[in-house]
Amino acid sequence: MSADRFRKWLMYAYAATLLAFIILPLLIVVPMSLTSSNSLAFPTPGWSLRWYAELWVDQRWPNALWNSVVIGLSTTVLASLLGIPAAIGLAWSDFAGKRIIYAIIAAPLVTPVVIVGVAAFSFFATLGLVGNKLSIILVHTAMAVPVMLTTVVASLSTFDRTLLRAAASLGAGTMRTFFKVVLPLIAPGVITGAIIAFIISFDEVVVASFLSTGAERTLPRMIFSGVRESISPAIAAVAVLLIAFSAVLLGVIAILQSRSQTLRAKVSA
Q1: pLDDT tens across 154-184, in order?
Q2: How far does CA 189 lie from the centroid of its chain?
Q3: Calpha distance 58→223 (Å, rounded)
Q4: Can you give the residue ranges of every domain in the chain?
Q5: Rounded to 5 degrees, what are φ and ψ at 36?
Q6: Cα–Cα distance between 211 and 219 in angstroms, integer?
Q7: Packed helices 183-203 and 60-92: angle between N→C axes, nearest 10 degrees
Q8: What residues form the membrane-spanning segments (predicted)?
Q9: CATH code of the region 59-268
Q10: What residues contact residue 133 under an 8 Å CB cut-off, 6+ apart?
Q11: Judging by beta carbons within 10 Å of its beta carbon (0-12, 13-18, 19+), is residue 143 exposed, middle or buried?
Q12: Averaged pLDDT for residues 35-49
């Protein structure tokens, strides 16, 4: 066996081992969610769908799901409205302090989430907004904007700016050029950033634990509380649904990235 072929198989083995290490703990949750027992157990003593039905009987779970969806969508919209203009300004402008501004915007990515949660709780407690969706949305937006910014900047880096001059020569204004020329070409990056922003908000638990109370609990906060208070197989059922949902979103991102590469190749040609 040649050295190149050996390295290739070694890389495959490493990738398979790493993938198994990540996926196997997730797969174990599936039979645990189908148990007939009243507690989490593996292997399961029997099979039942009762815990999936329990998610709709116990109104705390649908309410938590609704809160997570509302907060996630609101975060996605705000992150898009703030991240896209910021990305255009940073990608197509050259000014003093550009790197500093980018570092400030990206700060939430490197700041420990616990510190963000403590600071957010202290700030919003003085405003009386703890336990309000608005406080969670604002903090999640600050955490999602850097991701939106990064994906849009990556799309703009390959954008042919001669198209802007062509649109201007045909009499198109700034807004018309943006919606008819720029946005369609960077749409895969925008949608990818929006999906990741939604996932960040939907799955976030630390900030939600600090800022959500009672009826405003999010789904991750409900899961975390359930693990602490009562180990119910309903938690495993929720986890399976969340894994499936995340897998679908990741599949959409993969398709968008593939289409983005195809579109860029066509534009370059």
Answers
A1: 888 878 778 888 888 878 787 888 888 888 8
A2: 14
A3: 13
A4: 59-268
A5: -95, -5
A6: 13
A7: 140
A8: 65-88, 100-124, 136-156, 177-202, 234-256
A9: 1.10.3720.10
A10: 67, 70, 71, 74, 216
A11: buried
A12: 77
Question: Which residue carries 């790493």 as its tokens?
Answer: 18
- 129 Cβ contact partners less than 8 Å away, ≥ 6 residues apart: 135
Burial of 264 from C-beta contacts in 10 A (0-12 / 13-18 / 19+): middle
Contacts of 146 (CB under 8 A, 6+ apart): 83, 105, 106, 107, 108, 109
Cα(103)–Cα(108) distance, integer angstroms: 10
Most confident of 77-86, 177-186, 236-245: 77-86
Residue with tokens 């174990």: 28
The β-bridge partners of 47 are 35
The winner for highest mean pLDDT among 34-38, 43-47, 100-104 is 100-104
